[in-house]
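User: Thanks for the earlier help. One more: DUF1425 domain-containing protein. Can you show the sequence and predicted structure together?

Assistant: Of course, both are below.
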Amino acid sequence: MKTIALFLAAVFALAFFSGCASKSGQSDGPYLPQDTTKYTVESTEKFVLMDRAVQYSVTCTGLQEHTTPDGRLEVVANVKNRENRRIQVQVGCVFRDAQNFSTGDETPWQTLILGEHATEAVRFTAMNDKAKTYTVRVRQAR
């Protein structure tokens, strides 16, 4: 009986004192968010591939950007098929302001058919002069 009481007292003490300890010396609250590139790629890169199949099949051989006479941003992306077969993808562009926030100007997805090892130039023009940066996105055709 004495050993059971001693055992229960040890378990209680262990549970009590382990609950009071902080993790790795840090106090509770507020914490910084964990940064991962998995979810920030679209806001940090100018050309992104939206799925694994396109990542294997498509690459960008060049991006050109300039401002039209009325102050709008115009982007030309050279999209290249890396495969030895014809593929069909969809391409779109999101325009953002100088602080990297969307201007609300997102082009509709347009279908692009690429012959084997072909490169096509795709042109996007912002709707207004607020756009200072952009992201060209490519996904599988739906």
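User: Great, one quick takeaway?

Assistant: DSSP finds three helices and eight strands in the chain.
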